[in-house]
Specification:
Layout (H helix, E strand, L loop, with lengths): L2 E5 L2 E3 L5 E8 L8 E6 L6 E6 L5 E3 L7 E5 L6 E6 L8 E7 L9 E5 L2
Parallel strand pairs: 2-10
Antiparallel strand pairs: 1-3, 3-8, 4-5, 4-9, 5-6, 7-8, 9-10
C-alpha cells in the first residue's frame, strides 16, 4: 500500500518561508513524477509544482520565482517544496501526489496571516 507522509506546514507571516516535505513508501514501480497541489477554501485543487524522473520541474505561474520543488536524488521518493515570500493567496491545504496514480497525501495546512 502506497503511503505519502507529509510534513512542514504551519502558520507564517506574509513574506515568510516554509518548507514542505513528502516521503512516499510502498511504491512498487518508478513513479512518473511527484508533485505538490493545493486547495484553498472554496476553490478547486490546483497544481503548484511537479518534478519528473529526469529532474525537470514545472511550476504554476502563480508561484514561479517563489516556490521550488526538489528531491534528494534521482532515486529518492522524498520531495520538498520550499516556499518563499509567501502571500495571503498561498493559504491552502497542500497535498503531495504521485503523478499518474490515485495516491495522495492527507494534506498539510499552510496559513499565511499577519
Amino acid at each position: 500500500q502506497v503511503q505519502l507522509a507529509e510534513s512542514g506546514g504551519g502558520l507564517v507571516q506574509p513574506g515568510g518561508s516554509l518548507r514542505l516535505s513528502c516521503t512516499a513508501s510502498g511504491i512498487m514501480s518508478s513513479p512518473s513524477g511527484m508533485g505538490w497541489y493545493r486547495q484553498a477554501p472554496g476553490k478547486q485543487r490546483e497544481v503548484v509544482a511537479r518534478i519528473f524522473p529526469d529532474g525537470s520541474t514545472k511550476d504554476a505561474d502563480s508561484v514561479k520565482g517563489r516556490f521550488t520543488i526538489s528531491r534528494d536524488n534521482a532515486a529518492s521518493n522524498t520531495v520538498y517544496l520550499q516556499m518563499n515570500n509567501l502571500t495571503l493567496e498561498d493559504k491552502a491545504v497542500y497535498y503531495c501526489h504521485i503523478i499518474g496514480t490515485i495516491d495522495w497525501g492527507k494534506g498539510n495546512k499552510v496559513t499565511v496571516a499577519s
